[in-house]
User: Which sequence fits this backbone?
């Protein structure tokens, strides 16, 4: 199955706003999904670290041989996303959830800085992007985490940290090419301010909000 066919609805819709870069965006979202699957299904930390190390080897394989035949690895290479900045950072961010039995404030910051900032830099293909781009990715990642963890206290801590980071994105001027990230951040910002994590799936209300943000910017 091609990597993009297994994408959840939200990444699929976000990638559709990337224009000619849509395939690369789908590959990056699929990569994030593979790492999420590792974190979600790991029961033994050592095994989880080995699985993440495998992906690290894929990303750093200059010969392009590691992982051939794996749909996401193939999609990353076919679209050029394998060379995007932030992929190793994403792995490091997800590793926090794999190895830490309890996530404290420092762990949340490391997760957000790795997964969120890494993903948004990768989508933008901007190794030296502005600090507010990294902060917006962190807000998004914390919002997403808050909506998918069973630990209510961890979810609240994630939302609290996300609220702290919102000020770092104030006044940002989003380039047109970064529209998918702007939409993702705006969705997250609205819910973070309301004390909500990401909804699961694609409820009708979320789809309507995404459409409004895409059309009018808020």
Assistant:
């Amino acid at each position: 199955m091609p990597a993009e066919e297994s994408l959840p609805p939200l990444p699929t819709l976000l990638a559709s706003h990337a224009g000619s870069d849509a395939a690369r965006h789908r590959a990056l979202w699929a990569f994030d999904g593979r790492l999420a699957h590792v974190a979600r299904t790991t029961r033994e930390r050592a095994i989880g670290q080995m699985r993440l190390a495998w992906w690290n080897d894929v990303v750093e394989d200059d010969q392009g041989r590691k992982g051939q035949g794996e749909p996401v690895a193939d999609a990353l290479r076919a679209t050029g996303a394998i060379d995007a900045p932030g992929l190793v950072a994403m792995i490091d961010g997800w590793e926090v959830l794999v190895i830490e039995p309890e996530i404290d404030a420092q762990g949340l910051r490391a997760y957000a800085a790795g997964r969120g900032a890494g993903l948004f830099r990768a989508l933008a293909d901007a190794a030296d992007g502005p600090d507010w781009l990294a902060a917006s990715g962190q807000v998004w990642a914390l919002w997403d985490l808050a909506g998918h963890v069973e630990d209510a206290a961890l979810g609240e801590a994630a939302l609290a940290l996300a609220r702290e980071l919102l000020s770092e994105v104030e006044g940002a001027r989003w380039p047109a090419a970064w529209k998918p990230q702007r939409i993702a951040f705006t969705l997250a910002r609205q819910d973070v301010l309301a004390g909500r994590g990401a909804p699961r799936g694609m409820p009708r209300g979320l789809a309507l909000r995404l459409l409004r943000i895409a059309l009018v910017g808020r």
About this structure: The first helix runs from residue 9 to 15.
